[in-house]
Amino acid sequence: MIASRLSHALTTGALTLPVGRIAVFGPPPGYDLTALPREALTLVSHDAVATRHWQAAGYEHTRTPSGVFAAALVVLPRARDAQKALLAEAAALAPLVLVDGQKHDGIETILKAVKARAPVAGGLSKAHGKLFWVEGASFPDWAAQARDVDGFVTRPGVFSADGPDKGSRALLDVLPPLKGTVADLGAGWGFLAHHILKNPAVTRVHLVETDAIALDCARENVTDPRVEFHWADATRWRPPALLDTVVSNPPFHRDRAGDPGLGRAFIAAAAGMLAPSGSLWMVANRHLPYEAELAAGFSDVAEVDGTPGFKVIHARKPRRVRR
Which domains are seen in the chain, by residue range? Predict the structure, then answer.
């Protein structure tokens, strides 16, 4: 278990935590926090799925920590610029910063970068990863900075932060003019919604996104009054009324592991939120096996023009099995 490094450091005496509040940045569901005093913890999460998990477990949580903290723990994300941004935020918040991560997520690289800037007070290796900590460090130039990508705002760590991904472009290339009410499940920083709203026949677009930072970007990129923003798990979100269209470029990874079950859950959710005449437009990597779920959820499923790497699916007439 990843957190066993933290438990090991504390139980062996390699690490002693100061008395006071502890901020924990980005713990995924299932991360073991039992070595830390629950009453001292504030979890900092931008992910709606993780936030729901920790809220149900009774932990204090926030997106924007404030006040005095004795220590901060950063659970290393995958994106390199997001790693640096979290370290900068943690170091500005607390005098002691711990960083816990796996080798395949770049813990060695970020450790090397930190060592070039500040003394490392301690660390240990265990279970294909490392935990290290620094005291009194400061990384102001690592702080998150918005970037402009062809007129769109993105930020460190959001999906496709360097520009629209190939899947979204493939979907947009074949998407017909839409009308009525639309939901974009997994809306990211608003690329698809920006283009969908160019059609005046669209009356409402719901942007549903689990990453609060991406959704903040979308709020800057999509300012049309017909938009509603929802920080939520797209597989659990329900619209106020049945929709005319759902569009989606669903994720298929949990951390580094591929998980086609995510896309299947998006398809099932879409089928449950569409009107009887509604339709789903989605894009997926060609190797992903979504056909059975599409057939179960819709009476009419067709693959339309895509690319060598991506298939674009148009599914109509959702079956009236509520999800």
Answer: 4-142 (3.40.50.150), 147-318 (3.40.50.150)
